[in-house]
Design a protein that fits this description.
This protein has 152 residues and is an all-alpha fold. It has helices at 2-5, 10-29, 34-41, 43-55, 70-85, 90-102, 106-119, 124-136, 140-150. It has one domain: Alpha Horseshoe (Serine Threonine Protein Phosphatase 5, Tetratricopeptide repeat). The model has no long low-confidence stretch (mean pLDDT 89).
């Protein structure tokens, strides 16, 4: 994190994130039992890694013919793993929706947000992201409805 925030070295920061992820995966694979596996899996740490990968993706989907950045794909896979292991973590679902949206998967992002809001109607972040996505797609009525739900 410091590599990016202090030095502004994006490639170096992504390399360090990759190293941290690889080390974490190695440690998790060495788990002797199911309980040890879930303790070492550490969903919070994986979400932090995914958030850091997403920092390098910008705030809006990019239209590019070169495919998705590897760090965006890694963030998506991490968040899919977290939500698969523990579907009750709504923050992970919101991050996954954001990652899918950044990856130009608007239907997948909105589905993830819908699932999140079904579990927790008071999840303001989900409503705001749904409003943003709908606004960017020109669906202002849906965006307005999501904003009203977020602040009611």
């Amino acid at each position: 994190m410091l590599e990016w925030r202090v030095k502004g070295n994006k490639p170096g920061a992504i390399t360090l994130l990759d190293n941290a992820l690889n080390l974490h995966i190695q440690q998790t694979k060495q788990s002797a039992s199911n309980l040890d596996f879930y303790v070492k899996l550490n969903a919070d740490f994986l979400m932090q890694l995914a958030q850091e990968y997403l920092v390098h993706c910008g705030s809006k989907p990019k239209i590019s013919s070169g495919g998705s950045p590897k760090h965006l794909i890694k963030a998506i896979k991490l968040l899919e793993n977290v939500t698969k292991q523990n579907s009750a973590i709504t923050q992970a679902q919101v991050l996954l929706a954001k990652a899918r949206w950044l990856n130009n998967d608007t239907p997948g992002a909105l589905k993830e947000l819908h699932d999140c809001m079904k579990k927790d109607e008071s999840c303001v972040e989900a409503h705001i992201l749904a409003a943003l996505i709908n606004s960017e797609n020109g669906n202002m009525k849906a965006a307005d409805n999501y904003l009203k739900q977020a602040f009611s």
